[in-house]
Specification:
The complex is a heterodimer of chains A (767) and B (689).
Chain A lengths: L6 E4 L12 E2 L5 E6 L2 E6 L5 E6 L5 E7 L2 E9 L3 E6 L4 E7 L4 E5 L7 E7 L9 E7 L7 E3 L3 E8 L6 E3 L5 E6 L2 E6 L4 E6 L12 E6 L6 E5 L3 E6 L8 E6 L5 E6 L5 E6 L4 E5 L6 E4 L6 E6 L5 E6 L3 E6 L4 E6 L12 E2 L6 E4 L4 E6 L4 E7 L15 E7 L5 E8 L7 E10 L4 E8 L7 E6 L8 E5 L3 E7 L12 E7 L6 E6 L6 E5 L2 E6 L4 E7 L5 E6 L7 E6 L3 E6 L4 E7 L2 E6 L6 E7 L2 E7 L6 E9 L3 E8 L17 E7 L4 E6 H16 L7 H18 L6 H17 L8 H12 L4 H8 L1
Helix pairs in contact in A: 2-3, 3-4
Chain B lengths: L4 E5 L9 E7 L4 E6 L4 E5 L5 E6 L7 E7 L2 E6 L3 E6 L4 E7 L5 E6 L5 E6 L4 E6 L4 E6 L7 E6 L5 E6 L2 E6 L5 E6 L14 E6 L4 E6 L3 E6 L4 E7 L5 E6 L5 E6 L3 E9 L7 E10 L5 E6 L3 E6 L4 E5 L14 E3 L7 E4 L4 E5 L3 E6 L2 E2 L11 E3 L2 E7 L6 E6 L5 E6 L3 E9 L2 E10 L7 E4 L5 E5 L5 E6 L4 E7 L14 E3 L8 E6 L4 E5 L4 E6 L6 E6 L5 E6 L4 E5 L4 E2 L1 H9 L3 H4 L7 E5 L2 E8 L4 E5 L14 H6 L2 H7 L3 E4 L5 E6 L4 E6 L2 H7 L12
Parallel strand pairs in B: 1-57
Antiparallel strand pairs in B: 2-3, 3-4, 4-5, 6-7, 7-8, 8-9, 10-11, 11-12, 12-13, 14-15, 15-16, 16-17, 18-19, 19-20, 20-21, 22-23, 23-24, 24-25, 26-27, 27-28, 28-29, 30-31, 31-32, 32-35, 33-34, 36-37, 37-38, 38-39, 40-41, 41-42, 42-43, 44-45, 45-46, 46-47, 48-49, 49-50, 50-51, 52-53, 53-54, 54-55, ...
The chains are: A mainly beta (767), B mainly beta (689).
Chain lengths: 767, 689
């Protein structure tokens, strides 16, 4: 079999940025957040992704600023290590190996050299028993140190990291689990605990959801499941402790945060309203509504000028202390489920899928950046549980990216199904999609499958629906519309023995259309709309259907519900080969002959990559993930790899991304790719005499070039000069505006770069 | 446990009156409550908040303030007078006019030497409290606007007075104003409205706390006259403030019906710089809270919704028990209904009039086992208005239904009722002036005698006959050993069925038994620490059955002059936990002649039959066991049954009486009906409505 060791499943692009509270650097210039295996550094002013701290091999679960040095950050990960970074330069300073999975990290100024970590109790990890431990960091000059000096603080720890917080000056730590609040005083080594009743007559749900401690007073704020906020005081008394209750949130309070001065308390919950309570005068509160998804975390900068909220729609909002939103860092929006396929917009090469409710999102995987949302439903979305609202369920691009077809529907649970087919034209002027045609009753029942013809000349849309018909739609064929020819109308209605269609697909050159009706595949000619042939391979309903590409375009692949993968030769109309495998997703690569098939067997998913011409897989990867994979896409690379290794060749021109049921977007990375990335990061570590900012890269390279020029006595040819110029322009255009030096400095350099240098000629007379 | 035909009476439109003022006396642990109708009630705080005394009000007598001076209780009202009450005889002692127009507030100093009242004309008047009366001393500097609230500094040297838009601090010695603190008006439209300082509290450290109509609780410094801190408590008014004795906790009552607690807490643990911090909020009222009082272990609040709420502060309670539970007192702890057992008449007592009703009759069978068809609707026979301004203190109808008697503070009136078919007429038989005014009235079971409990634990006897009535004599307790102490007036007087015995209890917790044939005191039941709430004499055994405010029960054999064996067994074994945890006192004790071992009791929430022949439940047995018993087969029931049979079918019970035809009359006054007759509360936006 093929060797698989040099291909690895990684989280790269589209990861969650809202897993842990983001932190703001003490100069308020950077926002750091965890994103998959990385820690990402964003600029607070431009929302631009500056760089990422790369080194963990599993999900990063917590970050916190080093209290001893505000330019350093600790990060902890499930891989069992704590790493200390210089986050401005992106340099890994130290790695502390703890040895067990870590789930949260806390530090306090008073406890220098001690980290507080959430670890899962080794004895029974099933019961989700977590322990708060303190780890003494050994003082050692080495890069990688083992930190084994652990001592347990408490084992009554909630798995929610926001249920633990340090109190005033680090004198005590407060942590809550279920209905109990515990306060542990370090000096006295004593724990005070306070319990609430589970419910009372008024139906309160008192379970703790989050904790925050006042920075200067002995006051603990706790959030509760029913939306109450309690401020606890006098908690060194068993009986005379007291609390005041505030109630604004109508659902669980997700997070609480005191401003560094302690004058305000910030809270957030599912309402996606940031609430600012004035400390001491609790009735006075300010609101910042309509922030998007529900608020999961809030953090404040150390000078109190900026707040950061992270939201359930994978977004970080940067908010000024005057309660104005000044920046939004949007990750890939992931709802509960992705209903559309994963698609690639042919123009922008962006990944397209469901985003906000009723929207399609365009996400650039290369820059790991959310581009924009396209409002498909164009109706107000009402946040209410159980409300049946329109959702985008199907979407398709034509081959040039000038047309987009979408299907939105509602009434999935009830019997009265409502759906619209919409066609969107790309408007060159506004560079976005504009609604062209809305078809209200495209079919009498739900649309099952939809595809555009792949020919360049005429665009045609085929929809197959549960009313046992498929329809072809063309532009302007309807005689009733006397206006422009731009609107779409039905061109042909086809059916086969009153069977329900299950899938449809165009061949690569659009000369054939394959529509599967239960067990039967029918092949049609789109020009004449005559049925050419039928292919049948019982038993099992056809699930997926695709034509081969390029040299394999004579093949048609199909998968059935009875775990069969079949390949027909369309020239002979015979079954070329078939094999028994339970394929959950069949995904052809548009840039090569390769086809990827995900099969789900005995609780894990395997990947096979093969060419339709031969039944032997090019590449197999067992146990890609433990969930079923229903969505996958090949994303074209910006610059193709030139690996000649047989097993990695299929990744040369495009990259395969797939979405698990946990809404994790995973991909494959090859060893060569990783080497390249590592070498770039190593380079950063080596020249550490100067901070490696883009500014340095720009000017430093320039200086180097100049030095080279000065040292090199021989006049050089034009070629390197040109590359220097293009490098300068590239740097100039790709560097965020706020880190660029002053325009006056750049101007001469920029102009110089355009000059076709004949310095060599000029230098001669000088000499 | 026996079936009864029940008259479920819901036509008694009793409306409790709203609470206007509260005053707590820490030394004798009593709390005085003034209601809107001018009545004053005294509750015993350590005896399960039993309503010991009721002083009925008068027409046109609005009380605005209450104040204890020592063990003396004073009130002041909008009629401009200061009233002292005679608590032993439960009546007004005297009224002194302050000559300053309507009085808004009254406050006594801690030394017990002076009373200050705030008047409509802008004066604070000081009265000296003398041995038997109060004496006007002088006016403090007159202000331009009315004085709404007053508070003495604990040293007695300064007074803070809340007025319109400001608070004035007076030096008591000179009578001059020391400081003027200006309270801000509200913002927006309420800018033009005056800010009323409804309540002020002067603390010993010189902090003045005010609650005003803008909804703020403000803290002021009396040295500099500056505002220290202000808390916005509500959008409406803060009407009442009360501070605990050690000045570490403050409660504020608002017109939204919430009580907000503030505590004096050190912000950094272990250090001494304390601040007033808003902590808890209690919401037990639907309407304005007009008065709050922080007593030792609880917060007592009362307002327009006429209920007295006792909310315990659990951090101050030593042991949590039934005595320290949340308590809401809706109805008076005495009977407002009396029944003519033999003729099916009911007399309802309202503050200003009496109503006589005839009970309905049924056909004796209904559509199901539970409800019977009504053959004749109940009928209102009589509406008897009170003569004079005083409100009715007590009333009674004789068992035969021929006599009606009522008493006010000034007089006692006896009427004879003539009922010929549909014509009802009454004739006044007797009118007795002040000395004989009764605290409790009762007829003998053969309607031949009227007993009237009066001052000094005496009971007057009036014999009734067709020709007229005659004052027969007075029963007085044996006064051999204890002559010095002032006897409290008697309250509860049941007479035995055979007319031989009479028992009377007074608020000193004494129970005297008299022999009616000899008209002499027979004996005295040993004094128990709790007050008697109801008692009855068994018709056949002549045992006196007594219920106490702490839910204990005793049976005392009159003939043997000792507790019965059953009573001793109850004391030895103790009562069930659920029985002890009930929070309203038993209001009536009845006996069923057909089952001599049965005692029928009721409180506001339940009706209970105690079968003295069955074993007592202990804490392990199921107390409410009727359903379990129903599911058991006949043979096993015996082993599972115990003495207490509780019926919770009826709620908000004012009175239960067993008629002579073995039917029960249950007078209910559903709280929803009371709430629906209250004025509309302040409109509040409620989430999701």
């Amino acid at each position: 079999m093929v060797e698989t060791s040099d291909i690895r499943v990684v989280r790269c692009g589209g990861s969650k940025v809202n897993l842990t509270p983001p932190i703001i650097s003490s100069d308020s210039r950077f926002v750091l957040c965890t994103s998959g295996d990385l820690v990402k550094v964003y600029s607070t002013r431009t929302e631009e992704w500056l760089h990422s701290l790369q080194g963990h091999t599993n999900q990063v679960t917590g970050i916190t600023l080093n209290p001893a040095n505000h330019l350093q950050v600790y990060s902890c990960s499930v891989d069992g290590t704590v790493k200390l970074w210089d986050f401005i330069d992106g340099i890994l300073i130290k790695t502390f190996v703890i040895g067990c999975p870590l789930f949260a990290i806390y530090v306090s100024e008073k406890h220098t050299g001690v980290l507080f970590l959430h670890v899962s109790m080794a004895t029974d990890s099933k019961n989700e028993c977590f322990q708060l431990v303190s780890v003494h960091l050994p003082k050692s000059a080495e890069q990688e140190v083992e930190a084994k000096e652990m001592s347990a603080v408490s084992s009554h720890i909630s798995k929610n990291p926001s249920c633990t917080a340090f109190g005033r000056g680090g004198e005590y730590i407060a942590f809550a689990r279920h209905l109990q609040l515990n306060v542990y005083f370090f000096r006295k080594q004593k724990t005070y605990s306070f319990s609430l009743k589970a419910t009372d007559k008024k139906g309160a749900k008192n379970a703790f959801t989050c904790i925050a401690c006042h920075p200067t007073d002995d006051c603990i704020a706790t959030g509760h499941e029913d939306g109450k906020i309690r401020l606890w005081r006098n908690f060194i008394h068993k009986k005379e402790y007291t609390y005041s209750t505030q109630h604004w949130h109508h659902n669980a309070v997700n997070t609480l945060c005191f401003t560094p001065e302690g004058t305000h308390l910030l809270s957030g919950g599912i309402e996606s309203v940031l609430v600012q309570w004035q400390y001491g005068a609790d009735n006075r509160k300010e609101f910042l509504p309509r922030l998007g998804g529900s608020i999961l975390h809030i953090s404040a900068s150390s000078d109190g000028q900026l707040f950061c909220t992270s939201h359930s729609d994978n977004k970080i909002t940067v908010i000024e202390s005057s309660f104005k939103v000044c920046g939004v860092i949007q990750g890939l929006v992931k709802g509960d489920a992705v209903l559309t396929d994963l698609m690639i917009d042919p123009r922008s090469k962006a990944l397209v899928l469901n985003g906000k409710p009723g929207h399609l999102q365009f996400y650039s995987l290369l820059r790991d950046k959310h581009l924009y949302n396209l409002d498909i439903v164009q109706q107000e979305y009402i946040y209410e549980a159980g409300l049946d609202q329109f959702e985008v369920v199907k979407a398709a691009f034509d081959i040039k990216g000038s047309w987009l077809a979408t299907v939105e529907e509602r009434g999935k649970k009830s019997s009265d199904l409502e759906f619209f087919l919409k066609l969107w034209a790309f408007d060159e002027r506004t560079q976005s999609f504009v609604l062209n045609t809305t078809i209200t009753a495209a079919h009498t029942d739900r649309i099952i499958s939809m595809c555009f013809s792949s020919s360049e000349e005429t665009t045609m849309l085929v929809t197959a629906a549960e009313d046992s018909q498929f329809k072809a739609w063309c532009q302007g064929a309807d005689a009733d519309t006397q206006q422009d020819q731009n609107f779409w109308s039905c061109d042909f209605v086809g059916s086969y023995h009153k069977l329900n269609p299950t899938n449809c697909s165009f061949s690569a050159d659009s000369s054939l259309l394959a529509v599967s009706f239960q067990e039967v595949i029918t092949i049609w000619s789109p020009d004449t709309w005559e049925m050419l042939t039928t292919l049948c391979q019982p038993p099992g309903v056809i699930r997926d259907l695709c034509f081969g590409r390029l040299s394999c375009s004579k093949y048609l692949l199909g998968t059935t519900t009875k775990n069969l993968l079949c390949c027909w030769n369309l020239l002979t109309c015979e079954l070329e080969w078939s094999t028994s495998v339970d394929v959950s997703k069949l995904q052809p690569d548009p840039f090569s002959e390769n086809v990827a098939a995900f099969s789900y067997q005995s609780k894990h998913t395997d990947l096979f990559v093969f060419k339709p011409s031969e039944p032997r897989p090019l590449f197999t990867n067992k146990n890609v993930c433990s969930e079923k994979v229903h969505r996958a896409v090949f994303v074209p690379r910006e610059e193709p790899l030139n690996s000649c290794d047989e097993s990695t060749q299929w990744l040369n021109r495009s990259q395969l991304y797939f979405l698990t049921q946990n809404m994790d977007l995973l991909t494959f990375s090859t060893a060569t790719e990783e080497d390249r990335m590592l070498s770039s990061s190593k380079q950063l570590v080596i020249d550490d005499s100067v901070a490696v900012t883009p500014f340095y890269l720009l000017l430093g390279k320039h200086r180097q070039q100049q030095q080279k020029l000065n040292t090199q006595s021989h006049p050089v040819s034009d070629k390197p000069q040109q590359t220097q110029g293009s490098v300068t322009i590239k740097e100039l255009l790709h560097t965020p505006a706020h880190v660029l030096p002053a325009a006056s400095v750049l101007c001469s350099m920029f102009v110089n770069s355009f000059l076709i240098s004949n310095t060599g000629v000029q230098q001669d007379p000088l000499r | 446990m026996g079936e009864f035909k029940v008259h479920r009476v819901r036509f008694f439109d009793y409306m409790p009156s709203g609470i206007r003022a509260l005053a707590f006396n820490r030394d004798i642990e009593r709390i005085a409550v003034a209601r809107m109708d001018g009545s004053v009630e005294v509750f015993h705080c350590s005896d399960r908040f039993f309503q010991e005394k009721i002083i009925p009000g008068r027409e046109q007598c609005g009380i605005e303030g209450l104040s204890w001076v020592g063990e003396r209780l004073f009130s002041a009202g909008l009629n401009g007078g200061i009233t002292e009450y005679d608590l032993t005889n439960q009546k007004v002692k005297y009224t002194v006019d302050a000559y300053g127009g309507p009085i808004w507030t009254i406050a006594g100093n801690q030394q017990g030497t002076h009373l200050a009242v705030g008047c409509e004309d802008g004066t604070v008047k000081l009265f000296e409290v003398n041995e038997d009366k109060i004496q006007f001393e002088r006016n403090l500097d007159r202000q331009k606007s009315r004085i709404i609230s007053l508070s003495w500094h604990p040293s007695g040297s300064k007074i803070a007075a809340g007025m319109m838009d400001m608070i004035q601090i007076f030096n008591v010695e000179t009578g001059h104003s020391v400081h003027r603190l200006l309270a801000d008006r509200g913002v927006g439209t309420s800018r033009s409205k005056e800010c009323v300082v409804w309540s002020v509290v002067y603390l010993s450290d010189g902090t003045i706390i005010s609650g005003d109509s803008v909804g703020m609780v403000k803290l002021w410094d009396d040295q500099t006259g500056t505002l220290i801190k202000s808390h916005n408590v509500t959008k409406c008014d803060v009407l009442a403030l009360s501070v605990s004795q050690n000045e570490d906790s403050l409660v504020a009552g608002t017109s939204e019906g919430t009580v907000v607690q503030f505590q004096f807490i050190s912000m950094v643990l272990g250090k001494d710089d304390k601040e007033w911090v808003r902590t808890r909020t209690f919401k037990n009222h639907t309407h304005d809270i007009r008065a709050v009082a922080e007593i030792t272990t609880a917060v007592v609040s009362g307002g327009m919704d006429a209920q007295l709420v006792v909310r315990p502060l659990l951090d101050k309670v030593e042991v949590r028990s039934a005595a320290s539970a949340l308590r809401k007192i809706h109805f008076p702890h005495r009977r407002l209904v009396s029944c003519a057992r033999k003729s099916g008449l009911m007399l309802f007592q309202y503050p200003g009039h009496l109503e006589l009703w005839r009970l309905g009759e049924s056909e004796g069978k209904g559509e199901d086992d539970i409800h019977l068809f009504v053959k004749r609707n109940p009928e209102k026979l009589l509406h008897l208005k009170v003569k004079g301004e005083d409100h009715i203190r007590c009333s009674a109808v004789s068992p035969c239904g021929e006599w009606i008697v009522y008493s006010t503070a000034s007089s006692l009136r006896l009427y004879r009722l003539h009922c010929d078919n549909n014509n009802v007429s009454i004739t006044k038989v007797l009118q007795i002036s002040t000395e004989l005014s009764a605290n409790q009235l009762c007829f003998s079971s053969d309607s031949s005698h009227l007993f009237s409990a009066s001052t000094q634990s005496s009971v007057h006897l009036v014999s009734l006959s067709q020709s007229g009535c005659k004052f027969v004599g007075t029963l007085k307790p044996k006064s051999g050993e204890r002559t010095i102490g002032i006897r409290e007036s008697s309250k509860i007087i049941p007479a035995s069925e055979d007319g031989k015995w009479l028992a009377s209890a007074n608020s000193d917790h004494e129970v005297h038994i008299y022999n009616l044939q000899t008209r002499k005191a027979h004996c005295t039941v040993p004094v128990y620490s709790s007050a008697v709430t109801a008692m009855g004499i068994h018709p056949t055994t002549n045992c006196l059955f007594m219920m106490y405010a702490d839910q204990q029960m005793c049976e005392y054999s009159i003939e043997q002059k000792q507790y019965t064996d059953w009573s001793r067994m109850v004391q030895r074994k103790g009562l069930h936990r659920f029985w002890m945890e009930r929070d309203t006192p038993c209001l009536n004790v009845m006996f069923n002649p057909q089952h001599p071992s049965h005692v029928i009791l009721h409180d506001t929430y339940m009706l209970c039959i105690i079968d003295q022949s069955l074993p007592l439940p202990d804490d392990k047995t199921q107390f409410y066991n009727q359903l379990t018993l129903k599911s058991l087969p006949e043979e096993q029931r015996k082993s599972h049954s115990h003495a207490f049979k509780v019926c919770k079918t009826f709620k908000d019970i004012l009175c239960v009486e067993l008629m002579s035809d073995q039917s029960l009359v249950v007078v209910e006054r559903p709280l929803e009906d009371v709430a629906s007759q209250l004025p509309a509360p302040i409109k509040q936006k409620k989430f999701a409505t």
